[in-house]
Amino acid sequence: MIEIEALTKVYGPARAPAVDEVSLYVPRGSVFGFLGPNGAGKTTTIKMLAGLITPDSGRVRLGGYDVARQRSAAMAQFGAVLEGSRNVYWSLSAWQNLMYFGRLKGLRKAQVAERAEDLLTDLGLWERRDDKVGGFSRGMQQKVAIAAALIAGPPIVLLDEPTLGLDVEATRTVKNWIVEQARELGTTILLTTHQLDVAQELCDRVAVMRQGRLVADLPTRELLARFRERDRYEIRVEGAAPPGFDAVARDGVTTISVRVSDPIEVYEVVERLRAHGAVIESLTQVQPGLEDVFVSLLNEPSHAA
Amino acid sequence: MTFARGFAAEVRKGLLDLAAGWREVLIQMVTFPLFYLLIVLFMGGGQLRADLLAPVLLGMVALTFIHEQVNRVFWSYLGDIQSGVLEQTYLTPLPSASLILGRQVAAAVSALPTALAVLATGATAIAVQGGRMPVDAQVIVPLAAIVLGTCGLALILCGLALVFRRIEIITQLSVAVYAIAGGTLVPLAAMPDAVAFLSRLVVPIAPGIEAMRDILLGGHALVSLPTGWGLGWLLAQPLLITAAGVVLFNRFERLARRRGTLGRP
């Protein structure tokens, strides 16, 4: 599990806090989405979590170990793929990278070799294990970085934009693998991504940061449900729409989009349509996606977590 | 045990890099001996004078180590900072200074082929001049002092790289200054007293070079070195520089963590 308490970081006396009193709890075996626009403070938070940046105040615990006071024990719990970094040595082969990082984590040679074989096989890289990583495609390099982060079998894994720049096939492999790690092995995964469909698909819980502060921290379903009050409905009718409705016509079918604050209002709209002689084919509630929620959160003046 | 495994992994990685860059090593094995011969030619007014070949040879061997240990380690470290790989090494239970020391061991080993090429060239040139390359096992002590002292210097430069951008010029300048002030070409005894004093005090290779010349060319024993500040300082100086390197590196590292500069493009 990951525990973050009132984490704060200010880079200069005249600057606004990059991270302001952020607290989070990520339970064991869950996939936690950490979202926010560029400059929101995600990277600083993640690097404080990893012990790469010293916070001005607050505390981080990984698997119960304090990152500041029990660094060695905390790091033994942890593996990470950081965004914008190579993460592994391009001059070495995939196998050499895994052996190197495994040994740095304190594993014996035989332990690393066994684990490296499993990981490279799982990620479809076994046949290319002796090739230099510098010659790999972006997706393969990312897979090697993920394998290196996991070489010691850490109970906590941080994946910063793990599917960025990957093709469809590689993205699917990584997504499947994330789910497998969390569900079958109980690994706690902290995932940051700008690909909100990926977050919605994978994350049990989502936190959203804006200007150094958390503006949401809820289970994904609950977060989506919170915004259901602004759900849209789509009503499909035969022929043209009566005047006064927001409609799009395609292939002889007209779709009328209605935004309501109370579901009862939908029935009123249906009655009005019938009164105009419209033949209703279907009525569908449009569920908000995480992207809609994300945009709403960022556009609101403030939002309590 | 974790420390030993991490240290060994770092040394192994350095040696893999060495093997991968064998062409670069090969070029150095040609250019360094050539540089040595050119220096002796210039100093000898166009002749390979026998009285210059051996003293400059010893300075050149020391220079090879400082060049390899500082440049190889510093540039690889800077590359790791800029590519972001360095941050991954911080996500381990190991103290980071131990990994730099691992890099140093690999760099010292990497310096061996070039140093041997320079030695072989020097020995051949001396033989051609009718002389004989002196050999004395005691020379291992000053050579080890040079390697250890250079570790301290590299630690300081790597620490600076964690905090400051564009630190490359300091590294290039420091190697150039040490090449001159370390007495590689001109003995410290021939320099102004103040320069000689400062060189013996802070330049990692200076006491080592003086001791090597005393032992091999002067025929003196380690315990009775006539030039410089004696065996005590020969042993103490690299230890002090390395200790200072560890302290400064840790301070720079703490500063880098506060500023968030451990990894930056």
TrEMBL record, chain A:
Q: What is the lineage of its organism?
A: Bacteria, Bacillati, Actinomycetota, Actinomycetes, Streptosporangiales
Domain (ABC transporter) spans 2-236
Membrane topology note: Peripheral membrane protein
Q: Which Gene3D superfamilies match?
A: P-loop containing nucleotide triphosphate hydrolases
| Keywords for this protein | Antibiotic resistance, ATP-binding, Nucleotide-binding, Transport
One example of a Gene Ontology biological process annotation: response to antibiotic
What are its GO cellular component terms? plasma membrane
Family indicated by similarity = Belongs to the ABC transporter superfamily.
Judging by the UniProt lineage, the source's domain of life is Bacteria
A Pfam family recorded for this sequence? ABC_tran
Compartment(s) = Cell membrane
User: What PANTHER family does the record point to?
Assistant: ABC TRANSPORTER ATP-BINDING PROTEIN (PTHR42711), ABC TRANSPORTER ATP-BINDING PROTEIN NATA (PTHR42711:SF5)
**Which GO terms of the molecular function aspect are on file?**
ATP binding; ATP hydrolysis activity
* CDD domains, per database record: ABC_subfamily_A
Q: Specify the protein name.
A: ABC transporter ATP-binding protein
Write down the species.
Nonomuraea terrae
UniProtKB/TrEMBL annotation, chain B:
Write out the transmembrane intervals.
Answer: 25-43, 105-128, 140-163, 169-189, 229-249
Q: Name one GO cellular component term.
A: ATP-binding cassette (ABC) transporter complex
- Keyword Lyase found: no
What's an example of a GO molecular-function annotation for this chain? ABC-type transporter activity
The record's keywords, sorted A to Z, are: Membrane, Transmembrane, Transmembrane helix
Q: What is this protein called?
A: ABC transporter permease
Which species? Nonomuraea terrae
